[in-house]
TrEMBL record, chains A, B:
Lineage: Bacteria, Bacillati, Bacillota, Bacilli, Lactobacillales
This protein's name: Beta sliding clamp
PANTHER family named in the record: BETA SLIDING CLAMP, DNA POLYMERASE III SUBUNIT BETA
Domain of life per record: Bacteria
Species this chain originates from: Enterococcus devriesei
The DNA polymerase III beta sliding clamp central domain, residue ranges: 136-249
Length: 376, 376
């Protein structure tokens, strides 16, 4: 294998596959990036136990300035390789595989000779049977992930809760995440959906997927296999394993009747929550208290060592019964950030029942639920 | 005490004194910032075992919008206080000391009540006898620090080497730092110097001092006391303890005759050293090798696991005996960075004797010395 390529274009591709490469893996060859050159272009592959990423750089990509001298394949230790490429002196570099998997990297007067690994020993990526296909615009997929993935459990005690539950049925895609203290749910209408499915994708995979998708205009093609899911764009294949097991039924968790309703603008409420949580973070229980009355909404936070804060909140509308309720401000912060700059409503039943957040206008395609903390 | 002040102007002052405040101190009151308000303006003080910083914000500072309602003094836990101030909703805030050292902080609808400490228990700063005074432009002092402080020892085995040695005599200020593997030395002519002195200032103090000095045009007034040094600007007093003990005689270390001389531009040489050190960092000995011949200068780096690099360097001039010499590339990087974008010369005696770096033109007011590594 021998080729010359534009350095910064190559670094872009390398960064993408590096998301899948861990330095901590127990399988040495997986610390490497697989480089494969054929007449169509250059493929880079990175993989770990959970995800695999393969990028494709076409031979006629203008920015890549790719010159193919000889096709072939090699695996190079990813971290070093990337540091070397970053520090090369010229805008392009030449990579040539020599004897015994030695690789010569040349740029200007700098000559690196690094030890490569036989690409024959690199694990094969899952074979994709084209079934259960679904197409989504990239921006819709990344929004869906951003609105739900923060609610997945961070603990392995119930592994199934570390993923986001995707269900496709009746022309609707439902995404749900919960760590059993809070829940996020988004519904997206899907046109031309072929097959129904019910899968759980690890939250960490979705975070990496979101970061790897850059082209806001493009579409992602999603293929679901027995224990894998593949996200396909014109320049990238992103594989993730699926979580095994039954996801709990979350439908029954979302209440349908309420006694108190509060409408407000997200940014001002979020800023107040952030202030109150400064003190609650120091307390033994990380909680803040919200007191809702006919004509005032007051937020309280305190820490015995440091002090206390109280703030009268600016709201748009309040109705129903007066209420005092305590909750973890970090759950509230995550939930509010997922809405962004808009007006939302919170609906409460009582101080001990979960409450919901949704946009104050429009249909209920996005809902978040937080369980309060009992204080007595 | 009660005052109202512009939030961002106050945060600036707080950031400066926070450089002296450690959260790890065993003396609880030193985790606090001392706030003192009198008719002239507002003083903030932070202190730890090594340095103390006092800032002064004049009552007539326009950006501060200071309204003095009642003078007084209090100590507030610095980390929380600063986080609270940062998150307040309005451009100004009001701080009022209430009963039992409780402090009410108000901004818009947000009301914080935090526990303060009696300022009478805050340690007194050293009393400055106005002796051994010296005036330096800020830009000259920060340059002097930047050119030497990286060579101080990071180990406490010889505490005196963790400081920079400043000697004032014959109208010249000499600053020297060495960790016994490399040395940095700068000479600055001083006009109107009153007294000679010989002190060692901790490297860490100098780094914080450098960061605290912002006004490039201003002058710093330096006062030296028995075991303290004070750096005074119109808006800040910066105290540091001095290191006790005798600094080694470093004059005899700098050689005066050479057998090989190499002249080059710093940025290209630095980039090559950075490439070579990528591999040397992985080896057991962190060394690179420089081979100087009549008509070529080649830099080598290698790591048995990863690979090797060689690069023919672009130089301006080479003269004297051919030489192969090995050294720690990190020392070379630090030294080169201290020169910036200029042309410098390296002068060698032999592969086992320290070599020196200095600007290729001008007087020898700045010199750096690196001890090579014997490879056989």
């Amino acid at each position: 294998m021998k080729f010359t390529i534009n350095r910064s274009r190559f670094i872009q591709e390398l960064q993408t596959v590096q998301r899948a490469i861990s330095t901590k893996t127990t399988i040495p060859i997986l610390t490497g990036v697989k480089i494969e050159l054929n007449q169509e272009g250059l493929n880079l592959t990175g993989s770990n136990a959970d995800i695999s990423i393969e990028t494709f750089l076409a031979a006629d990509d203008e920015k890549a300035e790719l010159q193919i001298n000889q096709t072939g394949t090699i695996v190079l230790q990813a971290r070093f390789f990337s540091e070397i490429i970053r520090r090369l002196p010229e805008n392009t570099f030449t990579l040539e595989v020599q004897e015994n998997h030695q690789v010569l990297i040349t740029s200007g007067a700098a000559h690196f000779t690094v030890n490569g690994l036989d690409a024959d020993n690199y694990p094969h990526l899952p074979v994709v049977e084209e079934q259960n296909q679904l197409k989504l615009p990239v921006h819709m997929l990344t929004k869906l992930i951003g609105e739900t993935v923060f609610s997945v459990s961070q603990h392995e005690s119930r592994p199934i809760l570390t993923g986001v539950h995707f269900t496709m049925s009746n022309g609707q895609l439902l995404a749900v995440a919960t760590d059993s203290h809070r829940l996020s749910q988004r519904v997206v209408p899907i046109e031309n959906s072929n097959n129904d499915f019910d899968i759980v994708i690890p939250g960490k995979s979705l975070v990496e997927l979101s970061r790897s998708l850059s082209d806001e205009e493009a579409e992602v093609e999603i293929s679901i296999m027995e224990n894998q899911v593949l996200f396909k764009t014109p320049t990238m294949y992103f594989y993730s394993r699926l979580l095994e097991g039954n996801y709990p039924d979350t439908n029954r968790l979302i209440p349908s009747s309420f006694n108190t309703e509060l409408t407000f603008s997200v940014p001002t409420f979020l800023a107040a929550i952030e202030r109150a949580s400064l003190l609650s973070h120091e307390g033994r229980n990380n909680i803040v208290r919200l007191a809702i009355a006919d004509n005032s909404v007051i937020l309280y936070g305190n820490s015995p060592e440091i002090g206390k804060v109280e703030e009268e909140l600016v709201y748009e509308q309040v109705s129903g019964d007066p209420l005092e309720i305590s909750f973890n401000p970090d759950y509230m912060k995550d939930a509010l950030r997922a809405f962004g700059d808009m007006s939302i409503k919170i609906q409460f039943i009582s101080a001990i029942r979960p409450f919901t957040l949704e946009p104050s206008e429009g249909d209920v395609s996005f809902i978040q639920l937080i369980t309060p903390v009992r204080t007595n």
